[in-house]
Amino acid sequence: MTVLALDVSTTATKAVVVEPGGRILGVASSEYGFDVPRPGWSEQDPAIWWTAAVEAIGRVLAETRVGDAEIEAVGLTGQMHGLVLLDGAGKVLRPAILWNDQRTGPQCDAIRQAVGRSRLIEVTGNDALTGFTAPKILWVRDAEPDVYRRTRSILLPKDYVRFRLTGERATDVADGSGTILFELAARRWSPEVVEALGIDPGWLPPVFEGPAVAGVIDRDAAAATGLRAGTPVVAGGGDQAANAVGTGVVEPGQLCLSLGTSGVVFVATDRPVVEPEGRLHAFCHAVPGRWHLMGVMLSAAGSLQWFRDALAPGVDFPTLLEAARRAPAGSDGLLFLPYLSGERTPHPDPDARGAFVGLTVRHELGHLVRAVLEGVAFGLRDSLELIRATTGSSVPAIRASGGGTRSPLWRQILADVLDVPVATTATAEGAAYGAAILAAVGAGWKTSVAEVCKEFVGTTSTLEPGVGRAVYDSAYDAYRGLYPALSPTFQRLRG
Question: Are 229 and 263 members of one domain?
């Protein structure tokens, strides 16, 4: 008795097999890249997701020796906000436009004008930003009218893989709300927003709660993957909601932090809570009866990756982190602004740029690396401060996940900067593990997501805030002044 989960991310599709009690029996992944046909654009051919899913499923089944009859349900998660367009025969019409694509500024303005900015935030919980799905649809309408005329279905990335597995068009409430075509409180497509944007409502897939069964493996998919025809496939969730489930953040007030290529601060709520200016994202959770607020920075661990690749090629990360450990808290007055890919929270500005500020001749490699780690932590604190102000609640602890949290130094910096204990969880599989938990509920192992999380998810270590807090409070005040001071320069450098 097991469940299988798929995570369709930007760089790989991962398959995970989990047994009752939460033990992971096996993990397999198949990697791929994405295309940048023009500066600021980001696309993928959906066919690579399906090919990678078939490879990952086949490999994990072979390595675990789990028979197809032993898999009771399949869960799905993946990158959010992407756009997949299908014609009436279910054929892909163009490459998918991804979450990190920045081409849709004019369409965001058009959405605000059509719906009204304040009304858009009130209904969907979000302002119109370039990363979301709705402006991508309008871009295709404006720039590729022939593709738009042939469109009959709109899907999100993981839901295209579901379509190939089951033949069914479907999505979940968490991923659906990330399109900004959703009525947040009602957990459904918004007739008001869809009509205002002139989108055919028939193009939008049916919506399900995360643990609900949204289809079954069909014969073609069974032949391709080795899964049993008729195996239930649950709705699942977008990667951030699924990651929260995988770290056990399912009850109101619980909070998690993800430190991957991008950075996320996520709090679960029992009602839709909206930041009035739309600086936080308000989405449905993958857990029935739950919502969440989320702050997003676009270059978190990606900032350290950039630093290594650009300024210290050939130096491994442990060496860089050891150099950072030897530098003092506050990096001797050096600040790093981590807006290498623009920014989302609290400055929704695709033209924002990165910067080192305060450089002197006394600064060495370790100072620069530590400034990067601290700058990312300051960016995450921006989100946490907004969450505190919007919800009016305290934060007793944070559950952290993502590749960056493997560094004890970075975890301690986070605890000091955020002034909150930072705990890590027992599994590193994050979103895929959350999708497996949702599949376990769909398979009937327990009656609720919270019950499964209590059994499956535990913490391994916790770092308390330390002596760096006072230094970081002062440095954070200086950091907060950088974007307002540099924003006019960013605009001058645009293009």
Answer: no
Report d(CA 238, CA 158) in Å as an integer. 8
Query: 80, 240 in Cβ contact below 8 A?
Result: yes
Task: Yes or no: say if 335 and 356 are a contact pair by the CB < 8 Å rule.
Answer: yes
How far apart, in whole angstroms, are the C-alpha atoms of residue 486 and residue 209? 43
Q: Let me know if 310 is exposed, middle or buried by CB neighbors in 10 A (0-12, 13-18, 19+).
A: exposed
CATH of the domain at 359: 3.30.420.40
Domain count, the chain: 2
User: Which residue from 150, 159, 164 is spatially nearest to 200, judged by alpha carbons?
Assistant: 150
Query: Which of 239, 316, 349, 416 is an active site residue?
Result: 239
298 near 274, Cβ under 8 Å? no
Q: Does residue 252 share a domain with residue 182?
A: no
Domain residue limits at 307: 248-495
Is residue 243 in a domain? no
109 noted as active-site residue: no
C-alpha distances out from residue 64 to 28, 59, 68, 293, 303, Å: 10, 9, 11, 37, 36
Burial class (CB in 10 A: 0-12, 13-18, 19+), 274: buried
- 3-state SS, one letter per residue, for the chain: CEEEEEEECCCEEEEEEECCCCCEEEEEEEECCCECCCCCCCEECHHHHHHHHHHHHHHHHHHHCCCHHHEEEEEEEECCCCEEEECCCCCECCCEECCCCCCCHHHHHHHHHHHCHHHHHHHHCCCCCCCCHHHHHHHHHHHCHHHHHHCCEEECHHHHHHHHHHCCCCEEHHHHHCCCCEECCCCEECHHHHHHCCCCHHHCCCEECCCCEEEECCHHHHHHHCCCCCCEEECCEEHHHHHHHHCCCCCCCCEEEEECCCEEEEEEECCCCCCCCCCCEEEECCCCCCEEEEEEECCCHHHHHHHHHHHCCCCCHHHHHHHHHHCCCCHHHCEEECCECEECCCCCECCCCCEEECCCCCCCHHHHHHHHHHHHHHHHHHHHHHHHHHHCCCCCCEEEECHHHHCHHHHHHHHHHHCCCEEEECCCCHHHHHHHHHHHHHCCCCCCHHHHHHHHCCEEEEECCCCCHHHHHHHHHHHHCHHHHHHHHHHHHCC
Q: What is the pLDDT of residues 436-476, one digit of tens each?
A: 999 999 999 999 999 999 999 988 889 999 988 889 999 99
Q: What is the pTM of this model?
A: 0.92
Domain-located, residue 253 = yes
* Segment 250-272 mean pLDDT: 93
Summarised one tens digit per residue, pLDDT across range 181-211 is 999 999 999 999 999 999 999 999 999 999 9
Q: Same structural domain for residues 11 and 70?
A: yes
